[in-house]
Amino acid sequence: MLPHYVVHAMEGRVRIRHHAFLAGGTARKAEQFLLRQSEVEALQPGYGSFLLLLKPEADLEALCKNLEENCPELQEKSSFSRRAVGIPIFSDLSPRRVEVRFLTAVSLLCILSSVIDSSKMHMVTGIVLAALTFRHIWVRRKAL
After folding, report:
1. What span, in angstroms and rounded, lies between the C-alpha atoms of 9 and 49?
2. What pTM, to 2 d.p., does this model score?
3. Are residues 25 and 41 in the same domain?
4. DSSP string covering 89-137, please?
5. 84 and 103 co-located in one domain
6. What is the pLDDT at residue 83?
7. C-alpha to C-alpha distance for 75 and 69, rounded to whole angstroms
8. Which of 2, 11, 39, 135 could form a disulfide with 58 if both were Cys (CB 3.0 to 4.6 A apart)?
9. Binning pLDDT at 50, 70 and 90, where does residue 92 land?
């Protein structure tokens, strides 16, 4: 099982967040430790977090265990939240989330317009949906 400070993990990418990273010393110590690890290809620091880009053969649980040994502050439960550290609640919506919600709304509008047989609106929403999807895939995944 992954530790509490692993916010999300997917193939090759892991976001770790802990209130101890807000203190400069712990963040520097963790960053130096992580950069020395052979499984870590790249590290992108954030506000109280790190995004780790890992090699495919990386063992995340072992990496986290070694990180906890190097930074014992990570073993205590984190009470990190954006509100607690003074970031306004509206900034919790990242641009990506806004984009995905907009994509979802346009796709629902496209489906609804096809059901009510409004061909012009269906065609316009279909074109907008295709353009937004293309942009999302291009920017987020570089997959096209």
Report:
1. 13
2. 0.54
3. yes
4. GGGGS-HHHHHHHHHHHHHHHHHHHHHTT-HHHHHHHHHHHHHHHHHHH
5. no
6. 46
7. 9
8. 39
9. low
